[in-house]
Amino acid sequence: MQRSVAADLSALPTGTPPVGSERPLLTYLDDATGERVDLTAQHLGNWAARSAGLLRDGCRLAAGDRVAVLLPPHWRTAAVLLGAWSLGLAVSFRPRATAGLPVLEPGGNTPYDAVFVTPERLDDWLEDVPDGTHRYLVGTRREPLTDVPVGWLDWSTEVLRHTDVPPDHAAIRPTDAASPDGTTYGQWGALAREMADRWELRAGDRLLIDAAEHEQPLKWLLAPLSVGASVVLCANLDRSTLDTRISAEQVTRVL
Predict the structure, then answer these.
(1) Is the dihedral of CA 221, 224, 229, 231 positive or negative?
(2) I need a surface site. Which of 27, 218, 226, 240 has the fewest CB within 10 A?
(3) pLDDT of 52-69, one tens digit each?
(4) Are 180 and 107 in contact (CB under 8 A)?
């Protein structure tokens, strides 16, 4: 810890920082574009439910199936991850391979059941994006994607075909694999709580995270949520305005 201080796409909350009971669970900010998205626990749950519906009903996936999520820290990434985990899927967010190097993960030569990737990574010649039975492009901006390649679908379009009512959660056991490398749901949960304790995070804290410095979902998503803290996730963070942002967002911790 570096510092301690005291619907559909068009309907996403934006604008000035909410206050009081409206304070969001996850706020996403991009200082390069000025984008702001505020998601309460209900909003985030609705998007996770849509993502779960896409995977369950659209892709026909079930507990134990393998999903690759090659996405940066972003509110959409949170929705994809939480939706997949709610179904008991084994989610990989580390299959980054460069210059043709193999993905060092069990089953790395077997197509994933679903793959989620940004257009930037798909177009990067250094990236070896793993194959998948179902393949989705996930943009990190509000604007709809254009020129979606054949064989890929736009997540922001497809996810809206599914209800935002949370599905019945899978009967997940702590010993079930939450990622293809065998790390279990129980182990990820324990790691998240251990990290939150190390940072002295508590329920009600508001954690500001530099997305460029902390890509691991264990840090920007699981650890704060495990103790009931909320997150201000900043892409392209302008550190010259950090003090102002801390005050405006009522931030209590900075990572």
Answers:
(1) negative
(2) 240
(3) 999 999 999 999 999 999
(4) yes
Token pair, residue 52, equals 């779960």
What does the CA dihedral 196, 197, 201, 203 come to, rounded to 10 degrees?
90
- In Å, the largest CA–CA distance within the chain is 50
Q: Where is 50: in which H helix or E strand?
A: helix 41-53
Identify the H or E element spanning 117: strand 112-117
| Calpha distance 255→253 (Å, rounded) | 7
The most confident of 89-103, 114-128, 153-167, 216-230, by mean pLDDT: 216-230
Both tokens of 240, joined, read 């010259």
How large is the C-alpha radius of gyration of the chain?
18
Entry pTM? 0.87
Q: From residue 79, how far is each of 1, 54, 86, 132, 232 by CA, in Å? A: 26, 11, 11, 19, 15
In the numeric block, which tokens belong to residue 42?
């209900």
The token duo for 156 is 């922001």
Phi, psi torsion values for 72, nearest 5 degrees? -80, 170
Q: Which residue, among 8, 5, 6, 1, has the nearest Cα to 162 in the 3D structure?
A: 8
